[in-house]
Amino acid sequence: MKTFDYDLLVIGAGSGGVRAARKCAEFGAKVAVIEERALGGTCVNVGCIPKKLYVYASEYGAAWQDAKGFGWHGEQPQFNYQTVTDNKTKEISENSIDERLLTSPGVDIIEGHGTLAGPQTVVVGNRTLSAEKILLATGTWPAMPDIPGVDLAINSNELFDLPRFPERLLVVGGGYIATEFASTFAGLGATVVQSYRGDLFLRGFDHDIRGFLAEEMRKAGVDLRFNHDTHSLEAAESGVITAHLSDGRLDFDTVLCATGRRPNIAHLGLEHTAVKLNDSGYLCVNEQFQTDEPSIFALGDMTGGWELTPVAIAEAMVFAESQFNNTPQTMDYQSIATAVFSSPPIGTVGLTEEAAQAAGYQTTIYQSEFRPLKHTLSGRDERTLMKLVIDTPSDRVLGAHMVGDDAGEICQGLAIALKMGATKADFDRTVGIHPTAAEEFVTMRSPRD
Prior knowledge:
This protein has helices spanning 15-26, 41-46, 48-67, 81-94, 98-103, 176-187, 207-219, 309-324, 353-358, 374-378, 407-419, 424-428, and strands spanning 6-11, 31-35, 108-111, 114-118, 121-124, 127-136, 140-142, 168-172, 191-195, 223-225, 230-235, 241-245, 248-252, 254-257, 261-263, 296-298, 338-340, 346-350, 363-370, 384-391, 397-403. It is an alpha/beta fold and 449 residues long. Strands 1, 2, 3, 4, 5, 6 and 16 form a seven-stranded mixed β-sheet that branches. Strands 17-18-21-20-19 form a five-stranded antiparallel β-sheet, with helices on both faces. The protein has a four-stranded parallel β-sheet with strand order 10-9-8-14. Helix 1 (15-26) runs parallel beside helix 8 (309-324) and helix 3 crosses helix 4 (81-94).
């Protein structure tokens, strides 16, 4: 039998790669993980974690204004951008546990860029390593639009460490990354324009949710511009960037392009293997995450499915159990909950109304819009929207969607109910917690016309 340096080589130490490497090592495999950047990947370093910290920071200004209606008075507090940036960096650098998670079960951590030299061979610097199986988990990388002057713009990886606060920010894009950053920096006090070429942002989310959020974000001060293009960027004096837009010219301190992400496969050496890409440039894999090269597997964002950290982790568990614990499994992608940390946030799980109808379901829709109790005293003009999509013949809840405070927290719990096949009758006979916003999901009795 051919001998190898490792049973498994993992290229990429993001959420999926770390979990796969750790679990496979715990199952007895000899494992190494190769990473050229910081352990933890996008989520820990330039994604979910720092983003959520900035979202928290953005909420305090509005909360102070809200407090006046509850009797709190005093001088308006001042925001120090450098403080949150420094504290974010300190938190990430001091509290990363990925190295311990890997070394504890015996995973070797190899720093450097891993390049495939064949189906079972990886080159890292001047080292050549062999493995019976190779797992690719290099994620995706921000894609920049093809417009003149785009070199003056930044991508989402770079937004967390700007040398100064962007008083005037242009966000180009209409996905969840663009929308979250537009909301966050508006909450921090920036003047924000979000430019999107489509009719309405957040394609793929429920249409009512998208339209409702657009109204609420405009109330919160984001200048949303749909059917709108950024034609070019031009450097002006004193670091100012002049954006040539479809409706005129505007000056900005910073331009963020959040126009999508692409598989991070540059110099990965796929040409030395039989690995194939689909028409969108993502790696083709089967239900066991195996590529067209039998010894090479891939999971996470680079395969073009749900680009969510928990999904990559769940896929890693399926891979580890199947390949190194003699427990073949497949990934269940039904009723995956997700959130958009906009202001206000979105929480969603299951099918949208449009997706349910496209799939042939006969649907009944329950929908409720209301002013949260808190804002009856705060005076803030913010409303909440909740929506249930029901399969009429079976009464099963196909989807639950929300725009409003704590939407992500609420929909995480609803995801359990949907995963278990809950019906509208199950929701109806559940006693709510009063007074909460969440109780609205179990008290909606009248279908939408």
